[in-house]
Amino acid sequence: MNADEITIRPISADGSDLAQLLEIEKLSFNQTDAWAPEDFNHWLSVNPDFCIAAEVDGRVVGSIFGRIQRYRLNIGSCAIHPDYRQRGIASALLQELGKRAKAFSIHQMDLEVRASNTGSQAFWQAMGFEQFKVSPAFYPDGEDALLMHIKI
Ligand SMILES: CC(C)(COP(=O)(O)OP(=O)(O)OC[C@H]1O[C@@H](n2cnc3c(N)ncnc32)[C@H](O)[C@@H]1OP(=O)(O)O)[C@@H](O)C(=O)NCCC(=O)NCCS
């Protein structure tokens, strides 16, 4: 997919993206991990500058959410509609997130990923993230989280 077919833009503050985000969430995560409307609204209220959508043909096909935690940017969610994966959309979202982080003088990003989510780990590794810690029983079902970070 050409970069010019993807529009990267802020998530709408008026809630008009929410239904599409929830649909992607349902297709991307199990019930425990999928964000509810309150989660999206919370992250949007914390750092709207770091809540970004990818649109193709006028449809939201993915998003990334970050928030500033002291000197670093924590990525809380990144999900792409299954029909649009492996076309460079998450990479484009991450690139925009990094650009915005640098504009806020932030030079580190981090995230948690399920130990069993090897596909996503491969994505973050391909983007230059490195694992630096394991957080035992981080998830409600007892699974460990791998903590990954990148300097930007
Ligand atoms: C992980 C996810 C966000 C990646 O989105 P994407 O738009 O498909 O990623 P990109 O197309 O930008 O991938 C860039 C590179 O990452 C790597 N990559 C991406 N997904 C991968 C996978 N499932 N397995 C192995 N490598 C992968 C590839 O090297 C890819 O480059 P290539 O296509 O040229 O080989 C997407 O698969 C997703 O939404 N997964 C479900 C939700 C999730 O687990 N989110 C992360 C929570 S921590």
Entry keywords:
152 residues; alpha+beta; Aminopeptidase; 4 helices; 7 strands; 30% helix; globular; binds coenzyme A
Strand pairing plus helix content: what structural class?
alpha+beta
CATH homology superfamily: Gcn5-related N-acetyltransferase (GNAT)
Tell me the number of helical segments per DSSP (H or I, 4 or more residues long).
4
Give a quick account of the main beta sheet: strands, pairing sense, barrel closure.
7 strands, mixed
User: How many beta-strand elements?
Assistant: 7
Bound molecules: coenzyme A
How do the strands line up in the largest sheet? Answer: 1-2-3-4-5-7-6
Q: Helix fraction? A: 25-40%
Strand share of the residues? 25-35%
Q: Quickly count the domains.
A: 1
Our measurement of the CA-to-CA distance between the termini, rounded to an integer number of angstroms, reads 25 Å
CATH architecture group name? 3-Layer(aba) Sandwich
Regions with little confidence, pLDDT below 50 for 5+ residues: none
CATH fold title: Aminopeptidase
| Rg | 15 Å
CATH C-level class is Alpha Beta
What does this structure look like?
It is a single chain. The chain has about 150 residues and is of the alpha+beta class. The chain has one domain: Aminopeptidase (3-Layer(aba) Sandwich). Helix content is about 30%, strand content about 35%. It has a 7-stranded mixed sheet, with helices on both faces. The longest helix has 15 residues, at about 90-105. The radius of gyration is 15 Å and the shape is globular. The mean pLDDT is about 95. Coenzyme A binds near residues 85 and 122.
